[in-house]
Amino acid sequence: MDQWIERVLEQFGAVGVAALMLLENVFPPIPSEVVMPWAGYAATQGFFSFPAAVLAGSIGSFAGAFGWYWLARKVGKTRLASWVDRYGAWLTLSRGDLDAVERWFDRWGTVAVFVCRLIPGLRTFISVPAGFSKMPMGPFCIFTLLGTVLWTAMLAGIGAWLGRNHEDLAGPLGWISTSVIIAMFVWWCIRLVRQTRQRTQQNVH
């Protein structure tokens, strides 16, 4: 998949970065921890500028986070939780995940929106309790954008630093990316099987 990501970035440039980061918010096995370092590396190879990589990644990621916020705000907790019980396994999202991020939000409020944007596994779904609680859109956008830009810039910076300090980074970065993607995919499959089994058992009882 890392080769596919590399081709997307080479073919579509910054637009490809934004699209992949948007997709990351919907399908976690495509993680930002892989996309943005590749984007930073691609910037050192002249495919686009480093600011363009950070801007595009931030736009795509913010759009995904805002989509979850808007959905939770419009649909409400009861209906969304019911949908998660049925189909959330495909997104590696469970009722327990919703409860966990909601506890974070209840404890830390708007600060959690910023902090959780820097924590893998929580960064996407922290938007959900913010939407449930009808957090004002202005503060949500500001805190989400700040956390998103910081996260994407940091990951892109790692890729750019490696690209400037190593003559041939594509090989090592490819192995690292492949390992991360395989681990994420295996984790996704395990959660999918586990949640599907739990749902089947609940239906039987």
Automatic annotation (TrEMBL):
PANTHER family with a match to the protein in the record: ALKALINE PHOSPHATASE LIKE PROTEIN (PTHR42709), UNDECAPRENYL PHOSPHATE TRANSPORTER A (PTHR42709:SF6)
Membrane topology field: Multi-pass membrane protein
Domain VTT: 30-160
Entry's transmembrane regions: 12-30, 50-71, 140-163, 169-190
Classification via Pfam families: VTT_dom
Name of the protein in its database record: DedA family protein
Main location (coarse class): membrane
Subcellular location: Cell membrane
Keyword annotations of the record: Cell membrane, Membrane, Transmembrane, Transmembrane helix
Organism: Rhodopirellula halodulae
The keyword Thylakoid is annotated on this UniProt entry: no
